[in-house]
Design brief:
- The protein has 134 residues and is mainly alpha-helical.
- The chain has one domain.
- The protein contains 9 helices and no strands.
- The protein is flat.
- The protein starts with 6 loop residues before the first helix and ends with a helix.
Amino acid sequence: NGLKPNTITFTAVMNACEHTRGDKKIKTEALRISLEALSSMQKSDDAKPNYFTFRTMISVIGRLVDDAARKKHLISKIFELCCEAGYVDEVVLKNVKHFSPSLFEKLPVKYCLSGKLSDLPEEWTRHSRSKIRS
């Protein structure tokens, strides 16, 4: 029938995983599903991660990963992908600050002082909805 999952479909799966409750085994499975959805999106011609995908993935990791070092590592990887894709916005940054303060503190000093997206590298925010509206 030619139906394929799109960005909204994959991100909805991640969003459902983000709200998973239960023991470590259940949370680990929800994290695996989210990471697999992101991987599938990256390989897809029909679905690509967007600002909402990255916001959601950072929150998924923040809520489901208990080990601080692993959490920081995974959030760092997702943030790196977000920067490369140009989807850094205020909510992505808020989620990074909330779930990985030490990573947030490594952002460019000028941004940390001003809090303005315009003080981040242009390529990080080139597809930001906030930037499009301004």
